[in-house]
Write a structure and sequence with these properties.
It contains 13 helices and 9 strands. It is an alpha/beta fold. The longest helix has 22 residues. The structure holds alpha-D-ribofuranose (RIB) and calcium ion.
């Protein structure tokens, strides 16, 4: 089993990521940490507890950073609504928060498990992960891997070059990408292949029961906002892609690249500047590209949609069996 901590800002796609991580038998979900992003910290933390309650999930939940390291906080109410998870009924939490700050939970968990066994999966702004590195640098060598939902090498969704998680806290993202650990970047180029299509929604509907209903209500709301704002035919399930890749690395195709986050560009702040190692001619000496040769990051380029969809349906089925038992 792959041990993981999910760091998130629920968020509609975060909610699916929580259910996939908790529902898949090859994942040991050690805990959920929350970070301000799609909505305020209070709202995303409440949402994380509600998702767990709705799906019968009982794991430690610890609240984290209330805003980015440097930027002022920006939320995504136009996509996720005022609650951060508009659409489904959000039940009151059936359990209390872990008393620790998310950063301390991450550090304690990584440092108390065997080296190279705990994976970190941040799917909101990377603020908590960056703070954890600064507070306990040893987590970098001790963690097994970091699979981030964030960035993109051809486009953004908040600006032409900025994807929300990286754009919201670019300094935190640069700290994460510069740390000497195994990072996989699941950016928009990948997650825009992971749409909650009518076919997938029909498969989830066929499962029936409260978990299916919750998921469909999630997709109905975020589908409406993605149609309105981005003219998408179906909503991308961004964050679940990061969990899916940890469950089965064959779900994604990756290429090695140097990823640096732009921190000062007037038009490009928050861009994940991605220099693929296999791009001919970009290693020439003297030019800017010669500095972008830290080819440690695995950048996801292609999604195996069939395997991804099967994982989602399987998780809904497994959680449903537990909830209705
Ligand atoms: O850009 C998509 C990312 O921003 C997703 O993690 C979504 O939940 C929002 O946080
Ligand atoms: Ca998110």
């Amino acid at each position: 089993m792959a041990k993981m901590i999910l760091d998130c800002d629920p968020g509609h796609d975060d909610a699916i990521a929580i259910m996939l991580a908790a529902g898949n038998p090859s994942i040991e979900l050690l805990g959920i940490t929350t970070v301000a992003g799609n909505q305020t910290l209070d709202k995303v933390t409440r949402n994380a507890l509600s998702v767990c309650t709705a799906a019968g999930i009982r794991v430690p939940v610890a609240r984290g950073a209330a805003g980015p390291l440097v930027n002022h906080q920006v939320v995504a109410g136009d996509i996720h609504g005022d609650s951060g998870l508009d659409g489904p009924y959000l039940p009151p939490a059936s359990f209390d928060l872990d008393p620790r700050h998310a950063v301390d939970f991450i550090i304690d968990t990584v440092m108390s498990h065997e080296p190279k066994t705990v994976n970190l999966v941040p799917v909101g702004p990377f603020t908590n992960i960056a703070l954890a590195i600064r507070k306990e640098p040893r987590i970098v060598e001790r963690a097994k891997s970091v699979v981030v939902m964030g960035g993109g090498y051809t486009r953004g969704n908040v600006t032409p070059t900025g994807e929300f998680n990286v754009w919201a806290d670019p300094e935190a993202a640069e700290i994460v990408f510069r740390a000497d650990w195994d990072v996989t970047m699941i950016g928009l180029d990948l997650t825009h292949q992971a749409l909650a299509s009518v076919e997938l929604q029909d498969r989830v509907r066929a499962v029936g029961g409260p978990v299916s209903e919750f998921v469909l209500d999630v997709w109905e709301f975020v589908g409406s906002t993605y149609r309105k704002v981005f003219e998408f035919s179906a909503p991308p399930i961004h964050d679940a892609c990061a969990v899916a890749a940890l469950i089965d690395p064959s779900v994604i195709t990756v290429a090695k690249a140097d990823v640096h986050v732009e921190l000062s560009g007037r038009w490009t702040k928050g861009m994940t500047v991605t220099n693929f190692q296999d791009t001919p001619g970009m290693h020439h000496t003297g030019g800017v590209a010669a500095e972008l040769t830290d080819f440690r990051t695995n950048v996801a380029t292609q999604l195996d949609w069939s395997k991804f969809g099967d994982q989602i349906v399987d998780a809904v089925e497994r959680l449903t069996v537990k909830v209705i038992a």
